[in-house]
Specification:
flat, five-stranded mixed sheet, three-stranded antiparallel sheet, 4 helices
Length: 289
């Protein structure tokens, strides 16, 4: 009987995950204790980043900008997001952002984004100082936090999707009493608006008829779908398109005729979905030889 384990030389290498080992009587240093925390955090970040990528997990709904005491304010609801590195970004309560553009009028387009921040707290003396010298200190707690910010244009390095085109109204829902010239004029206006939006938007997805509520933003990038916002994950890849970026796009607010509207299609919404293995589907689709 052949030993199939010796068909090829095995490949064995180390990964980036390192966990500490303790033994009775072992003298521990600070890096030994920190290694336990680093291992757990590195593992969770790797899992979140690989399974979901960056984006909004729940909540973080942005309200329309309103004027309060002469200043434009934007409310962002509580929620949870994942940073590009895989860190959770918790916004525990509704937050209000106040715009104060130094007396100038706010721009007509506002991008709202959030990022993960860290703050060191609870400093303690690290050494017993000789004589009366001030002892050096080191922080003993590191708090996770968030920062919300408004931009005049999309942050250059950020996690998000392209704007989805508006869903066209079905012909059956159009008013039946319109005359032919009026209907033709309205159709021409609609076609012009679609052409203008095509350069900066992604085609509106068709809702899945089942209970999954999946959409076609999982398609590969093409002329019909300028950006496959979720495609690399559905394709079984390990993407890292924004691993060095900070900002997570939440929404874009646009002012037209002095009225504000908010579009959340620019955010990357991530939720767990049980799906098929794409590699198996590709293999089964190939003709057998």
């Amino acid at each position: 009987m052949n030993d199939i384990s010796k068909l090829a030389k095995p490949v064995r290498k180390l990964t980036s995950l390192v966990r500490p080992k303790y033994s009775p009587g072992l003298l521990l240093q600070d890096d030994d204790l920190t290694a336990g925390v680093d291992y757990t955090r590195h593992l969770s970040r790797m899992m979140f980043r690989t399974m979901f990528g960056c984006g909004v997990m729940c909540g973080l709904v942005v309200d329309k900008p309103v004027l309060k005491c002469g200043k434009l304010t934007i409310d962002v609801g509580k929620g949870m997001a994942l940073s590009c590195a895989g860190d959770p970004i918790e916004v525990p309560a509704t937050q209000e952002i106040t715009l104060d553009p130094c007396g100038e009028e706010a721009p007509d387009t506002l991008w709202i984004a959030v990022k993960h921040i860290e703050t060191c707290c609870v400093p303690r003396a690290a050494l017993c100082p000789p004589d009366e010298d001030e002892p050096p200190t080191a922080c003993t707690r590191e708090y996770d936090g968030f920062e919300l910010r408004v931009f005049a244009e999309r942050p250059p390095c950020s996690c998000g999707c392209k704007v989805l085109a508006a869903v066209p109204v079905a012909a059956a829902e159009a008013p039946a009493a319109e005359s032919k010239p009026v209907a033709a004029k309205a159709a021409a206006k609609t076609a012009k608006a679609k052409a203008e939006a095509a350069a900066v938007t992604e085609p509106a997805p068709e809702d899945n008829k089942g209970g999954c509520l999946c959409n076609e933003r999982t398609r590969a990038a093409s002329n019909d779908a300028p950006e496959g916002c979720y495609f690399p994950f559905y394709d079984g890849q390990c993407p890292c398109a924004c691993c060095d970026c900070e900002w997570i796009v939440l929404a874009v607010a646009t002012r037209k005729n002095e009225a504000w509207s908010v579009d959340h299609s620019v955010r990357r919404f991530v939720r767990p979905v049980l799906m098929r293995d794409p590699q198996v589907a590709r293999e089964r689709a190939k003709p057998s030889t």
